[in-house]
């Protein structure tokens, strides 16, 4: 599926599949009939858009929502894909453009509203157009008992028979009756390949920890799992090498793996990992694509992954056999800074950067979660669940407190110093530390000077880290990383909203602000 990954990043700008997408894309691209049930927001559209690009000919997409179709067509065109829609709202020019693209065979995706299926011309036109796949969005609309019933959806089965091409049906509605009706009406009762797997991997224990002494933390996690196969993901190539050496010194069987190694050396590591018991591979995310070992017992992140999707995919390599597996993710203020600057300094267009920040925010929200991590993780992918009992926060509910007042103090320190300083200086101002820089700038005369009596420096560092995790502040690359307030912080500053933070991770903040491996 190398092909699919390349298209995923080139056309859609995503570096990883969301849970479940890869398997569905493979089945649809392979020309099988598919019924996929994915939670809302799970990323269904990609599961037919990507195969449409992988297949010859035109993919017809039937969707009940005109606004949604238009959005998707616009998005695809912006990504350079030839796509069009035939809906009641079309102008004559739009229709002409779609016909022309069909005639010359350049059209890859044709969205049509279900009403169109009622006109006799549509089927004839589609027969001539070289349709190779039918995708049905919101397939539950075919259910006469559901409240979204669309009579025109009943014609889709007929269209499939007439065109004799594979059909992929998507819905978020998972109840058994609806599924049966979809199979009966869209697939003539012949069960298609079905994807119903939720995102939950209950055998994976989830845990995060604030970086204190990261090397010691990883070593102790590995020591408790000696003799088990595991992966440690690191943010840099250099760190994979030093950490693998440290693990070996501690008596583990460990090797490193990163994209800077010769292909043949990487193959050696992959081969050893697959065949040996109890080997630890310390790697960058270059390690993973080809890893298909069912009994990986643990995955640790020595550095924060870059997005919640990346996190899910990386921890998901553990415990594929269904037996219990452990995960641990370390994070600290340096990680947040590093990941933010990676996004800001990248070459992606502004909207993409904004989306990458949002995906990082989701991960940071998970790192600083106040309750069950699995609920937060599944919630992000659109699934609801009760507390899992298999994460660190279920095992030890965190101590939280109303941090509205200290956060407002911190925000006011940021604003009163003109949004030109980093956390270190702001903490000096808050704690009333008359450094040279503070005196030079006259910041010892500010009303916020010395008001932060509730925490010491370490405590304030943890508050700033949590503020960054809640996306209340962001470093501005144009100002050497000075912290600036985000829109999300305004209601708190104005006293219109409060904020709860964790006290336990404040107590645990490292003594020195610079955390190095
Ligand atoms: P739905 O399943 O509700 O139809 P969409 O297809 O609209 O969901 O996707 C929901 C969101 O997820 C969109 O913003 C989309 O860009 C994003 N998305 C889909 N696939 C990925 C991916 N592999 N990585 C990151 N974001 C993705
Ligand atoms: Zn839990």
From TrEMBL:
One of its GO terms (biological process) is DNA replication. Residues 214-364 form the Helicase C-terminal domain. Residues 25-192 form the Helicase ATP-binding domain. Its cofactor is Zn(2+); Mg(2+). GO terms for cellular component: bacterial nucleoid; cytoplasm; replisome. Belongs to the helicase family. RecQ subfamily. This is DNA helicase RecQ. It comes from Roseicyclus marinus. The chain holds residues 1 to 517 of 680 of the full protein.
